[in-house]
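seq as requested:
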Amino acid sequence: MRIKGIGREKEIVISSVRMTLQLVLVGYILTFIFDLRHPLVTGGIVALMLSFAIYNIYRRARVKLNNAAMKAIALSMICGTLISLTYFILIVIRLTPWYEPRYFITIAGMIIGNSMTGISLGVNLLLEGIHKQKHLVEAALMLGATPRAAVKNIINSAFDAAILPTINSMLGMGIVFLPGMMTGQILSGVSPVTAIKYQIAIMLGIVGSVSLVVFFFLHLGYRSFFNEREQVIIPDA
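struct tokens:
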């Protein structure tokens, strides 16, 4: 890379060292938590993960978000991920006890992480769509359309684009690549058939959570781009 003048050696080294230190630290923390097996600790860890995810979504936004948009993001992430996680833990795998950290925290991490990526895309795509089609939205408003009706096509397009990476990942799974969870189980000695069952279940949980959080945000967050007089407002970058 230095020969080509790219100059990313420092970032690669720093990222590698930081990743290693973070994973080693997390490994020791998880070992302690797995031995502790307390519902309050498990719930607290998941709440901390959600808080960091929401904070990262705020940081990834291409513009400064107003309070209404931030509340919509937080509410969507909390409701969408907890609904999916609760259904997956209690209905699909019927975990006993439900707070078993070895399963609860790892599954929550996958669901929250993918949901964070999906809603980050949704935020930026909704903003980009409203910005590019502002004249069409304003024209619809002048003709008597409600804000929801005026941005309906933008919301639908943003939803499709936001969940597309997750769908593409599912389409290529097993043929183009083997997912990390399945590979890890196979390397640990689990039967490939058993690993596949778990992978299918978690991927369905992930796509359900991503769809929910993006849907919730788009149908709550669009209001943050309108003022009390139902006029379009575009936040400053």
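Residues 49 and 178 are 26 Å apart (CA to CA).
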